[in-house]
Amino acid sequence: MARKATQLYFTDGNECWHWLGQMKSGEAVITRNGKRQSAKKFFYQQHHQVELDASDRLKNTCGHKGCLNPEHHRVRTDADRELTATKQWLFMLKSSLEKKEQTPQQIASLTTNIRNRAFPLLQTNDVGLIRGIVKCFQLARIYASAAQTTWLNEQMRWLISKEHTIQKNVHSYFNRHN
Prior knowledge:
Number of domains: 2
Order of helices and strands: HEEEEEHEEHHHH
Strand order of the largest sheet: 3-4-5
Strand content: 5-15%
Structural class: alpha+beta
Number of strands: 7
Shape: elongated
Helix content: 55-70%
Number of helices: 6
């Protein structure tokens, strides 16, 4: 099987494995014993000598969605799921802010909810989370009182500074390793 499998992907300069084989719903699949299964999960299990449950999901760490290199994945945790759910919640919040006028009281409630739910996850250094919060705050300013606007502006400056620091660290890391 190993010889056949190596013919089904190619590598790039980032050591990512790009699938050339069978696809189902946009995901690489292999057929083993007459059953289709995720190629990503198969390679991960073989490489790490582990057995994953059907409910286990893998998180990509290299940034290339289609990558199959088992070194570029890890099993998703509850924290990963919470981060994803919070980013989806922020997207829905942003959509409602774009469609419906808000009162300053609603803005106060909204910002409290964001602080309570999203701010604890900022330790993950997820740029998508930061951008989601900033976008909600930008839209909230439209309906905010003067005091709320000042607070929102301060928070956005801090968040944008945090995003720039993360990006600077990422660029520095890649420059050292390339």
